[in-house]
Design brief:
alpha+beta; six-stranded antiparallel β-sheet; five-stranded antiparallel β-sheet; 7 helices; about 30% strand; disordered N terminus
Length: about 450
């Protein structure tokens, strides 16, 4: 019996000394360069404090500042896509943006096969963040705005977010190593595709239904973070977010939140009814452009407007939902090029440039101006930000279109005639090449 007791003591002692060795494999969140080796720092990586997925700290999602919502089911049926954007993990996950080379986590080399990005909607805190799926739109969840749903897609995994944790294995191409550790940068995590829908689902019937509402609920709609040895280990595939929230918020890196980013406006509104998918401009020589000539083509835009729609660029209020239209330069490279050349008017642009302006084979020193039927040059929207007026690219829709007096079921068609004009840019040298530019007609409450 004494010999047996001695054996037990030896076994217990052996286990006692093994535990510290196992703890060294625990992943940590990195908030200082002191957690980085000299080799990693010299490779261009950095580290700094980050808050984790706390409330009130979501970053910019890239959605329009105003989303228009009609209560007329015939005019805007359930399932209508109201807005969408691709939110960068780098800039959208936190109010303080990450950098691509910012290290967020560090794990042991032996953990390479145990590292996952995990993601889920927020279902734990309340009913309007990601708990109740709509009955009419797959994987879209009710928000605090009545009749509005949100759907999130993890772009790298290609999967919709749900209230149950999902995972995506991190590949060796997504992180960097030295002789001791794996370092996981912000760039390893996926961007999120966001869709905002109108829904008729009554699975959840609460929420705000006022005419104008800046989203004021601070709760995230989705989360993403790392699961690895010793970190967020309860966030396993299929585990409900309502019950498995270990590590929140300190060890959760990313979130998607509408808080303070979007104003939802309800009222009589307009939709784009008809527009040309391509506008072709005639060929023109550089000498003609330098002498002040232009290559021009006309095109028409038609809107369908509810008869009660108010045509104005003034900010909408609880009593008036004001409708304006504009032409949006939707390619960031074209916006940057025009801004660099000073082709701006307040927050708007005066010219539309080629999407690859400055590249080999692309004409330079030229831009496209848009003229109304009355011959006035229009400013263009550089972003879908409302209430910037004519200088920013917004125009009361009746200022640019004419009623066709064809009211049917309370909806009337308005049509405007416009001219696209390729012209030399003052002070720039015109060089030969192609011009391929993109412009989007938008109608929105202000």
């Amino acid at each position: 019996m004494k010999k047996l007791l001695k054996i037990i003591k030896i076994i217990v002692g052996t286990y006692f000394f093994i535990f510290p060795l196992l703890s060294q494999a625990t992943c940590i969140n990195v908030t200082s360069t002191s957690s980085l080796s000299a080799e990693i720092i010299s490779a261009g990586y950095t580290a700094t404090t980050w808050a984790g997925a706390t409330r009130y700290t979501g970053g910019s999602l890239g959605l329009p500042s105003t989303i228009s919502l009609s209560s007329n089911e015939g005019f805007m049926p359930a399932g209508t896509l109201l807005a969408s954007s691709t939110a960068s993990f780098i800039t959208a996950s936190s109010s303080k943006a990450f950098t691509e080379n910012q290290i967020l986590f560090r794990c042991a080399l032996a953990d390479a096969e145990s590292l996952y990005e995990v993601f889920a909607t927020q279902a734990n805190i309340n009913a309007y963040s990601g708990r109740y799926e709509t009955s009419d739109i797959e994987s879209a969840y009710h928000t605090y705005v009545k009749g509005v749903a949100i759907r999130l897609t993890n772009m790298k995994a290609g999967s919709y977010y749900s209230p149950y944790w999902q995972s995506r294995a991190l590949s060796s191409e997504e992180y960097i190593t030295d002789d001791t550790y794996i370092y996981i940068p912000a760039s390893a995590f996926s961007d999120t595709y966001i869709e905002i829908f109108k829904t008729a689902s009554t699975v959840y019937t609460g929420g705000n239904s006022t005419n104008s509402y800046l989203y004021a609920e601070p709760y995230a709609h989705g989360f993403s973070t790392l699961r690895g040895p010793g970190m967020n280990t309860t966030l396993t595939d299929g585990a409900p977010e309502t019950s498995y929230t270990g590590g929140w918020p300190t060890y959760w890196a990313g979130q998607t939140s509408l808080y303070n980013q979007v104003t939802f406006v309800r009222g009589a509104m307009c939709l784009v009814k008809d527009y040309p998918s391509i506008v072709l401009l005639p060929r023109i020589s550089t000498s003609s452009l330098n002498s002040g000539e232009a290559s021009q083509t006309t095109f028409d835009i038609s809107l369908s407007c509810e008869d009660g729609a108010v045509s104005s660029v003034s900010k909408s209020s609880s009593t008036s939902a004001n409708v304006a239209m504009g032409f949006l330069v939707n390619q960031s490279t074209a916006v940057t090029a025009a801004t660099t050349l000073g082709l701006t008017s307040t927050s708007g642009l005066t010219h539309l440039l080629d999407t690859n302006y400055g590249s080999l084979g692309v004409a330079s020193g030229v831009g496209i101006r848009i003229y109304s039927e009355s011959g006035n040059a229009l400013n263009l929207l550089s972003s879908n930000t409302t209430t910037t007026g004519n200088a920013g690219g917004w125009y009361a829709y009746k200022d640019l279109t004419t009623s066709q007096d064809d009211s049917t079921d309370g909806v009337t068609t308005y049509t405007g005639n416009f001219t696209a004009s390729l012209e030399a840019i003052s002070g720039e040298t015109v060089s030969a090449g192609t011009v391929n530019a993109q412009l989007q007609v938008v109608v929105s409450f202000q």
